[in-house]
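Quick start: read one record
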Amino acid sequence: MVLILNMKKVNAVVLFLLFSMVSFAQKPDRNYDKDKLESARVAYITNRIDLKPEQAEKFWPLYNQYQEERSKMMDEISSLNQKGNTSISDAEARNVVNNRLEKQQQMLDMEKKFMKDAQEVISPSQAVKLHGINRQFTRHLYQMNHGRSRGGGKGKNQ
């Protein structure tokens, strides 16, 4: 009974934070509170993979470091993709392709290491759910924002 009440409280906090983020995303200059967004993501993921407090204490530093490194690599890949949108020689294009593939391999290697390290803290079942749940969170934010920006209410997937 206590667990059910705690889950309802966590769900209420997650929903509140998500709705707060959507309202921030509606401002014309697209400013939003990054701390609130991250708090919502932490609450959402913690709830969905059922992280215990002792797991969360060790998991979140690993996850945050992984996400920071992943973000940097994604920026590098994006920069390489931008070079491909310009007029470049075949030799330069070959170099861009090779560099992009190298970065993608580094990202895969980094994800493998993160998953190995994460499974020392969380169960394999929790680890396998992680990627999908993170995508669900992002998709949920997008759908909430997209629905509001069109003046609509909740979409059929909500």
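The helical segments are 2-25, 34-48, 53-84, 90-118, 124-149.
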